[in-house]
Design brief:
The structure holds two protein chains of two kinds. Chain A is mostly helical. Helix content of chain A is about 70%, strand content about 0%. Chain A has 14 helices and no strands. Chain A starts with a helix and ends in a 12-residue tail after the last helix. The longest helix of chain B has about 40 residues. Classes of the chains: A mainly alpha, B alpha/beta.
Chain lengths: ~325, ~400
């Protein structure tokens, strides 16, 4: 059942009223002051994917918002001095510790913390309701403390990027590695070379390239969650339990999924090799085992290479 | 509004993701971006793991200490909880019992030490040799002896001292207070002989069985009345000690020590005491009542130790001289006549009136082969052994048998 705009607005108003009622300190805010914020959050998270959301989902969404945190932040944005002093008092430590963990030294941490407060002060409400600062509005979905930590983290990354002339992002690193790897692929396969003669070595190199291509393709065919899992585990070096936490699953689930993904990828790679590259089964078996030796380090590379869409391909030479 | 999968996650999205506050649909969207964007993935990973750690810490703290602070009342309640009481109280009781037992045993040991010391001094050259075990009569015995002994005054004094120590001794039947009957060997009571005979008898008694019965305290005729206050006192004290009741023995022990110090010994009075702990002490009084405290003490001690090993049957008849009290006591003893013999009840034993402690005893257990052989040859003996229960000392054909 789709909600019309009016219906949605009604639900938002009613939800906001409920929110204000359950807040310990509503900070003199009223429905009109808060309703636009709630609406924005709703659209960002719920309605963006699916405009036809049942009323119950909307109500549940609004009722899950952190009422006190939201009221506090909105009051700050409206210039409430008491709210500001409360914010500093409650979350000053949070900001400082987040800045410290995101920085390499005390001075940098201090600078970062100051920047955060400056940014927060820049969160003035504009007439059109759009944020004026760089920081996205706090929606109330997560806790205010967590939001502040996220803000600090992002600001740290931005500062780091700005601080170096050559914008080094993980994307760039990937490009560099790509170049490196392909270069290595040409002349450093000697380490894994099994064939003594140059002829065999060359054919081995080509086989390896085929394998990598097939691997990248197979990875691309994986579900996003599975691919994310592989990245978390192999590229980011997370432990299985940690990868599970990021994915929101139990460690055992993550383990099973990873095993399944491996099996799937291998099957898919073999199929691709034989079908699209014309390999025989025996060739496949041999090459895969050889290539698997240095596959792990290149796994991420495979994934990156295969990704066709997104910002990665900007400026990337394949 | 465009899906965010292509764009980087903003702080709010990242935070919502990290805290699991995203609706499922949004979450799936972000998987796509996160799988391909290393920087976003890195920060999101950081935030997510940090949030998870915080939750874990909070949960752990909450589960550990639901009640933030326990008042002292609550703590006290825990101590007295049923579970604690169930195990704690019996354990404490057991502990207390063990302590008491150890203390008691220690008291006994000390007493035996005293007795040994007394024995040694018994054979001191000077003064009359204290024969037999010194009379550390049981407390009650001592008490009785006080009256019996010729060392009346002295005894009294000694008794007084021993009074507290003699509560248990009091348990000893009055007959026990009677001095050991020396049998017909009145001469034995003489200073010189008495000690020896006493000693001999004591030895025999020792050889016999360890059973102790309360035997009347033996009083040396001479010793009986004349003792000066001090000497009897110590002896009494010794006697009391002989009582071997823990309480009594402890005090008596001290007394005996004092006496021992004095060194001189008077006539002994054999006092056989049956104590609850089985110590029959034959306290021997030196004929000379004026013996020094030491002597008496030693006597008492020796008597006590002797008595311990002596069978209860060592009933001594007081000598002719100062047997008044003794006889009074004896008079109260039972007598029976069986098989042509006269037996006098002494403690829990029947003692042949013709028993002379100078004769060696032959102990025979009823029902043993020895016994069967014996009664087979001497039917009359069997009659005696069977008609008289308990310990029976019989003089038979130049030999003395002790049935038990």
């Amino acid at each position: 059942m789709s909600q019309t705009n009016i219906q949605t607005q009604k639900l938002v108003s009613e939800g906001t009223a409920r929110l204000l009622a359950r807040a310990t300190d509503a900070r003199s805010l009223d429905v009109d002051a808060l309703a636009p914020r709630v609406r924005a959050a709703l659209e960002k998270y719920l309605l963006a994917a699916d405009a036809t959301v049942p009323a119950q989902a909307i109500n549940e969404f609004i009722d899950a918002l952190h009422a006190d945190d939201l009221c506090l932040i909105v009051a700050c944005e409206r210039g409430d001095e008491q709210a500001w002093s409360d914010l500093v008092a409650q979350f000053g430590t949070t900001v400082r510790s987040a800045a410290r963990s995101a920085s390499s030294n005390e001075d940098a941490a201090e600078d970062l913390a100051q920047s955060i407060w400056a940014e927060l002060h820049g969160l003035r409400v504009r007439e059109d309701g759009r944020p004026s600062g760089k920081i996205a509005y706090y929606s109330g979905r997560g806790s205010l403390g967590g939001w502040l930590r996220a803000v600090v983290g992002q600001l740290a990354i931005d500062q780091h990027r700005k601080s170096s002339r050559l914008v080094q992002t993980e994307l760039d690193t990937d490009f560099d590695r790509l170049a490196r790897e392909s270069h290595q692929a040409e002349d450093s396969f000697s380490a894994t070379q099994t064939a003594p003669d140059p002829e065999s070595a060359l054919s081995e190199q080509r086989a390896a390239i085929d394998v990598e291509a097939a691997l990248a393709q197979a990875m691309g065919e994986l579900a996003p969650e599975d691919r994310l899992l592989v990245k978390l585990y192999y590229f980011d070096g997370l432990r299985l339990r940690e990868a599970g936490v990021v994915l929101g699953v139990h460690e055992a689930t993550a383990s099973r999924r990873l095993t399944r993904v491996h099996a799937e990828v291998r099957e898919r790679v073999e199929a691709i090799l034989m079908k699209e590259h014309g390999w025989t089964r025996s060739e496949t078996a041999r090459s895969l085992s050889e290539t698997a030796m240095h596959l792990e380090g290149d796994l991420e590379l495979m994934l990156t290479r295969e990704k066709a869409g997104g910002e990665r391909q900007a400026g990337r030479d394949e | 509004m465009e899906a965010n999968s292509g764009a980087h996650l903003d702080a709010d999205e990242m935070n919502a993701y990290a805290e699991g506050a995203l609706p499922e649909a949004a979450r799936s969207r972000y998987f796509v971006h996160l799988a391909d964007c290393d920087s976003c993935r890195k920060l999101v990973t950081e935030l997510t793991l940090a949030a998870a750690r915080e939750d874990e810490a909070k949960t752990r703290i909450a589960s550990l200490d639901p009640t933030p602070s326990k008042s002292w009342r609550e703590r006290l309640a825990v101590i007295f909880s049923p579970a604690v009481l169930r195990y704690g109280v019996p354990a404490l009781a057991l502990f207390a019992v063990i302590i008491v037992a150890i203390v008691a045993m220690r008291a006994n040991r000390n007493e035996s030490d005293v007795v040994q010391n007394v024995e040694q001094s018994r054979y001191s050259p000077d003064g009359v040799v204290l024969t037999g075990s010194n009379s550390t009569t049981q407390t009650s015995t001592a008490t009785g002896a006080a009256g019996n002994q010729s060392n009346g005054n002295v005894a009294a004094v000694g008794e007084v001292q021993n009074q507290p120590a003699q509560p248990d001794a009091a348990a000893t039947p009055p007959p026990a207070a009677n001095p050991i009957q020396m049998g017909d060997d009145a001469p034995v009571l003489s200073k010189n002989t008495v000690p020896m005979s006493e000693t001999a008898r004591a030895d025999e008694a020792k050889e016999a069985t360890g059973e102790f019965s309360v035997t009347p305290k033996r009083e040396q005729p001479g010793v009986a009345a004349t003792a000066s206050a001090p000497p009897p006192a110590p002896q009494e004290a010794g006697r009391a000690r002989t009582a071997e009741r823990e309480a009594g023995s402890r005090d008596g022990r001290e007394e005996q020590k004092k006496n021992k110090v004095a060194g001189k010994e008077d006539a002994d009075e054999i006092v056989a005491d049956g104590s609850a702990s089985g110590g029959v002490v034959a306290s021997q009084r030196v004929a000379n009542e004026s013996r020094p405290a030491v002597g008496r003490t030693t006597t008492a001690r020796t008597a006590q130790s002797e008595a311990r090993k002596r069978s209860a049957a060592t009933a001594t008849k007081s000598g002719p001289a100062a047997t008044d009290s003794v006889e009074e006591k004896e008079a109260s003893a039972e007598t029976r006549s069986v098989g042509g013999r006269n037996f006098r009840r002494q403690g829990s034993a029947w003692v042949d009136t013709s028993y002379n402690s100078s004769t060696s005893l032959t102990s025979v257990a009823r029902g043993s082969e020895q016994y069967r052989a014996l009664v087979a040859d001497e039917p009359a003996l069997r009659a005696i052994a069977e008609r008289l229960g308990g310990e029976v000392i019989v003089v038979w054909k130049r030999r003395v048998y002790r049935f038990y």
